[in-house]
Design brief:
Blueprint lengths: L11 H6 L1 H20 L31 H15 L3 H4 L2 H25 L3 H24 L5 H32 L7 H25 L3 H20 L5 H27 L15
Length: about 280
């Protein structure tokens, strides 16, 4: 791969005919899945599927209802990215060529998760979302390590997949909690509160690790903190209430925000060549 960003590739014309259109099709599948999961085209709304375990009051680690509005932003970003990457200026971009297989896989896994939940298979849904999380992590790493063609490409990809990664990190926690609750874990058990607090601590640690690895990028942290904050809200005003877990979730959200800002300040102050690894020249 060339060391600078250009529009050259092994065969840009070939890329413009195949991969960009296939990726756009995967995003269309993901959007269709979202409509299915909302109940708008005949499917069962996610909060009612799989025995209701994925609803805002299903478990002690379920985000409140308002948290899920972030999906509108993520899907909008995916659609914008899918359209723009079809343009001649982006078709042969080194970043887009590297990103498309992983980004397309994330879109298909997203749709697969919705179908699995519609089928009522919570265990399989945890497997699918764990794979989705790994794919998104790989997608974001590729973004960080690949030079971009300019500010527009950097912002569209960074914001879209940063939000996607941060939110799915929270969704993986909530999905796993739903599975455990379906197996008999009770919200009123003292042990459940302790375990939930430990899981939230891990989520905060993941957020701080992301901040360290990305130089304090805001999008992943914003989505992760958003989800954690809504877990706190859900434990205070929903049917599954727990003040200790609400405090733990709020503290976790605060730690993610604080850690990200600290790493961002450090990134701004320390010369880039002194930062570990230099993230292969990726810019913010």
């Amino acid at each position: 791969m060339m060391g600078k960003t250009t529009h050259t590739s092994e065969d840009p014309r070939r890329a413009s005919r195949t991969a960009p259109w296939f990726y756009a099709a995967t995003v269309a599948v993901a959007v269709a899945g979202a409509f299915l999961g909302s109940g708008a085209i005949g499917g069962t709304p996610i909060q009612d599927a799989a025995g209701g375990w994925l609803s805002a009051d299903g478990t002690v680690l379920a985000p409140g209802t308002g948290a899920f509005s972030i999906w509108s932003v993520i899907y909008t970003g995916l659609v914008v990215h899918a359209v723009i990457q079809l343009l001649p200026a982006w078709r042969g971009s080194g970043l887009q060529r590297r990103l498309r297989p992983w980004a397309g896989a994330s879109a298909l896994l997203n749709a697969a998760w919705i179908w699995v939940v519609q089928w009522g298979q919570l265990l399989l849904s945890v497997v699918v979302i764990a794979v989705l999380l790994a794919v998104l992590a790989r997608t974001f790493i590729l973004f960080l390590r690949t030079p971009t063609n300019g500010r527009t490409e950097r912002l569209v990809v960074g914001i879209t997949f940063g939000l996607y990664l941060g939110w799915v990190s929270v969704a993986t926690v909530a999905n796993t909690s739903a599975l455990l609750a379906s197996w008999g874990a009770q919200a009123s058990d003292g042990a459940t509160v302790v375990v939930a607090a430990a899981v939230l601590a891990v989520a905060a640690a993941i957020g701080i690790t992301l901040a360290a690895a990305t130089g304090g990028r805001l999008a992943p942290a914003a989505a992760l903190a958003w989800g954690l904050a809504w877990i706190a809200v859900g434990r205070l005003d929903g049917g599954t209430q727990s003040v200790p877990i609400a405090w733990a979730a709020g503290a976790a959200a605060g730690l993610v925000v604080a850690g990200t800002l600290l790493y961002r300040i450090r990134e701004a102050r320390v010369p880039r060549h002194q930062l570990a690894g230099d993230r292969d020249g990726a810019t913010r």
